[in-house]
Amino acid sequence: MRLTLLLIFSLMASAVAAQQKAWLIVPGKSVGQIQLEAPAQSLEVLGKPDAGDAAMMKAWRIWYSRRKDKTIDSAHVLAVFTAMRTQDTQYVKQIRVTSPRFRTDRKVGAGSTIAAIKKAYPAIKLVKIYESANKARRIWVYDDNAAGIAFETSNTRSSKPVCNMVVVHDPGEPAAGYLDYHVGFDLMNAVEP
After folding, report:
1. Which region is the signal sequence (predicted)?
2. Is-contact 90 84, C-beta < 8 A?
3. Which residues have a Cβ under 8 Å from the Cβ of 151 and sit 6 or more positions away?
4. Which of 52, 72, 135, 178 is the one with CA 20 to 30 A from 86?
5. What's the confidence (pLDDT) of residue 134?
């Protein structure tokens, strides 16, 4: 009986750990089950992407969350950038996520204030600002380059800006090192921070 209870508790603990890992952001490594440097074929576990763009041996694959009625929830996005490293295989180079369910082990992610993120990742720095052609919208990018994680906010006029996208990238390479892509923001121009 005691062995059975121990086995049940062990299985329950394993299930909880697996569920927590499914929503974990690991800087410079992964978002959930998507790993940097993994072959693009590993993305098949997510099903067919809802959108994407590909050119010159690089590609964006984009998945949107679904509401209960199965319509697209564009506020919750997973975008994965892949690029060729060998002649016939693309590899994951960058992962972007907007869902607040994904969190780092320091408990920050989309929906966290920039102040909370700076406390959790004191090495982050404002590295880029993107502005729409009509100057009505801005995106601020804060990056901890050495760790391989960046946080974007598009509500910079607030006194307490909130992160709306987390970017996991290779440590030492900037979040914008490949191809800048901001879901829902077209024609953004980089301006000096």
Report:
1. 1-17
2. yes
3. 108, 112, 114, 117, 121, 124, 141, 142, 143, 163, 165, 166, 167
4. 52
5. 77
| Reported confidence tier of residue 187, pLDDT bands at 50, 70, 90 | low
d(CA 75, CA 73): 5
List the domain boundaries for the chain: 25-191
Q: Residue 4 has what pLDDT? A: 54
Sign of CA dihedral 60, 46, 25, 147: negative
User: For 140-176, what is each residue's pLDDT tens digit?
Assistant: 889 999 999 999 987 666 678 899 999 999 998 877 6
Hey, which residues does 39 pair with through a beta bridge?
91
Distances (CA, A) of 135 to 9, 138, 162: 56, 7, 19
State the residue for tokens 């180079």: 93
Q: Name residue 113's beta-bridge partners.
A: 162
Structure tokens at 64: 């949107």
Helix (H) or strand (E) holding 171: none
The span from the CA of 133 to the CA of 60, in Å, is 23
